[in-house]
Write a structure and sequence with these properties.
The protein is mostly helical and about 100 residues long. It contains three helices and no strands. The protein is elongated, with a radius of gyration of 22 Å. The two termini are about 40 Å apart.
Amino acid sequence: MRKLQYVLMMLAVLFCAMPAFADGGSTAINLVPIGAGIGMALAAGLCGLGQGKATASACEALARNPGARGGLMIFLVLGLALIESLTLFTLVIILVKVK
């Protein structure tokens, strides 16, 4: 298993490495859009996981104590809005940086 890990890391380095002296006249590859896409995918995916965990915890809390619905819903909506804002901040930064 350790050898497979080393082989995969070596292949990742080889695929990402740019040739140093291959061609003097060509321009560099622009990897900013690819990085922005990966960053947005990570932000959206992890925020989705966070929202799912928050909603599941709120449902469990409501099942245990239905009388606390009012206070719980306020904090749930506030938490979900803050989690969603992280994805929107990532989108704004990507739109500003990628031209």
